[in-house]
Amino acid sequence: MAPAVSLENWNPRTFIVDPLSTSIIHDLRNPLAAICACAEMLTDQHLTPDHARRLGHNIHKSADRIRGLLADLVGVTQGKIAATENCNLHEILAAVCEDAAVAADHQGVDILLDLPAQMEVTMARSRTERVFFNLITNALEAMPRGGKIRITARKAGDCAVIEIEDSGPGIPPEICDRIFDTFVTAGKKDGLGLGLALSRRTLRDHGGDMWIEPAAGARFVMRLPLTSNG
């Protein structure tokens, strides 16, 4: 019998899988880390009931995210493509920010959401949510002692342009030109150098794109086509 594969020690260089499967397996790391962190915080005997409820809610949401990722992985192995749907961008990003709220509060990071209430894009919801969640998680990891994450969106022609900017140390100049290449990473504990490459692939699969722009911290800019009534 083949030995079980540990996600904790999983190395994509040793597997030959399609990019979407790789993305799903990679993205399992974030909710697993959130569950471990929240469970550790729950051992604090001085937690207020409200804080304990928030931690429990975050564990539940992270477990549900894992369930969704595994369902996506099963769909990929069966040759199924995730269906697209019309989604309200504000609702999607607000939900993602809520998922990251416990970690942000713990680190003293303010997440500021500033975008129109009515802006609609067509997307495979779970895949695109993971792009936003990964970018916010990366920003949090860059600011362990506090800071700000600002998320904005605007219309540009028939597209939505979304910016996620943090007040962290920024992207090292030596990797700026290669930041979206596979296996390029810097300053991230246990980073595989896959998240940004796979995120950009997701946006391009939706007819959009992602790039970086100069900023005091890190600024990622994304473009997604609006629905006809977006």
Low-confidence stretches: 1-8, 10-17
Span between N and C termini? 52 Å
Strand content: 15-25%
From the alpha-carbon coordinates, what is the Rg to the nearest angstrom? 18 Å
Q: What is the arithmetic mean of pLDDT?
A: 82
Architecture (CATH level 2) name: 2-Layer Sandwich
Enumerate the strands of the largest sheet in spatial order, edge to edge or round the barrel: 2-4-5-7-6
Helix content bin? 40-55%
CATH fold-level assignment: Heat Shock Protein 90
Shape: globular
Top CATH class? Alpha Beta
Number of continuous helical runs: 7
Largest sheet: 5 strands, mixed
Structural class: alpha+beta
Please tell me the total number of domains.
Answer: 1
Total number of strands: 7
Written description of the protein model:
With 230 residues, the protein is of the alpha+beta class. It has a single domain (16-225), classed as Heat Shock Protein 90 (2-Layer Sandwich), CATH 3.30.565.10. Helices cover 43% and strands 19% of the residues. The protein has seven helices and seven strands, in the order αααβααββαββαββ. The strands form two sheets. It has a five-stranded mixed β-sheet with strand order 2-4-5-7-6, with helices on one face. A hairpin with a 2-residue loop joins strand 4 (147-156) and strand 5. Helix 1 (19-27) packs across helix 7 (195-205) and helix 2 (29-41) runs antiparallel to helix 3 (49-77). The radius of gyration is 18 Å and the shape is globular. Residues 1-8 and 10-17 have low confidence and may be disordered.
